[in-house]
Design goal:
Blueprint (H helix, E strand, L loop, with lengths): L34 H30 L11
């Protein structure tokens, strides 16, 4: 279901923002995440970003030390 701003009709991409990203009018509470849900979403995003960074560092380290497969070798 696509949520839209009741003031300007634009799509609401973040239910954490209290204002519409286009017209900057306040969004009704029923279109927003509760504070508890917003905090949980933030925590989950932090975990995802930490995991992504760990994976990136691990791949970089493996490339430096010749680990992994040979798919990165250019002939």
């Amino acid at each position: 279901m696509e949520l839209k701003c009741p003031h300007c009709g634009s799509v609401i991409y973040s239910r954490k923002n209290k204002l519409c990203g286009v017209c900057e009018e306040p969004l009704p509470a029923d279109l927003l995440f509760s504070d508890t849900v917003a905090k949980k979403v933030d925590q989950e995003m932090q975990q995802i970003n930490r995991k992504r960074e760990e994976d990136r560092k691990k791949e970089e380290e493996e490339r430096r030390h010749g680990g992994g497969d040979a798919s990165g070798i250019v002939f």
